[in-house]
Amino acid sequence: MGRRSRKRSVAGAVPDAADAPAPAPARPAPAALRRRAPSSERPPAPWGNFPLGELCTLAGIILMIVGFASSSTQALFVGLALVALSAVELVAREHFAGFRSHSALLALVIGFATGVVLVVVDAPRAVQIALAVVAFLAGFYFLRRTFKDKTGGMGFRA
Q1: pLDDT tens digit string along 103-115?
Q2: Within its chain, how far is the Cα of 14 from the centroid?
Q3: What's the CA gap between 103 and 114, in Å, rounded?
C-alpha cells in the first residue's frame, strides 16, 4: 500500500483564515448509541440477590439428565420447561427495562403459546399456523415499539 499524497505548505507560510475549511457540525457518533451496556446496568431481579433464576436453571438441567437417564419423558419436559421459564424471565426483565432488546425471542414465545392453545382446542392446522404467525408478528411489532420507547428511540442495544 502506497503513501497518501498530501498538499505541502510553503515553508513559513501561515494559512489564511478564509482558506481554512469550515468545521463539521457536531453529531453523536453511531458507536456511542450502540455501546455495550455494562453488567452493572442490568436490571435487578424482583427477589433481590437470591439466585432464583440460576437455581431454576440448575433444577431444570438436573431433571433433563434424569429424564434422559431413566427414559422419563415427564422429567425431561419439566426440566425443559424450567430452563425455558428461567430464560424467558431474564429476557423479559432485560427487555422491559431497556437493557437489551429481545423482541424476536419474546415474540416467538407469544407465537408458540398461541400455537399451543390452538392445538389444545383442536383448531384446523392452517388456522393454527396462521394465527401463530400473526401473533408472532404483532408481538414483535409491539415489543420493538416498547423497547424503543424505553431507550429513547434505539431499536436495539448490543
Answers
A1: 999 999 999 999 9
A2: 54
A3: 16
Q: Which amino acid is at 5?
A: S
Q: Are residues 109 and 158 in the same domain?
A: yes
Average pLDDT over residues 105-128: 95
The boundaries of the domain holding residue 66 are: 51-96
CA distance 71 to 113: 26
CA atoms within 13 A on the CB side of 77: 3
Pair (104, 69) in one structural domain: no
What DSSP line would sit under 111-138, residue for residue?
A: HHHHHHHHHHTT--HHHHHHHHHHHHHH
0.85 exceeded by the pTM? Answer: no
84 and 110, same domain (yes or no): no
Please, which pLDDT band fits residue 58 given cuts at 50, 70 and 90?
very high
DSSP three-state, residue 22: coil
Per the CB < 8 A criterion, the answer to whether 103 and 143 are in contact is yes
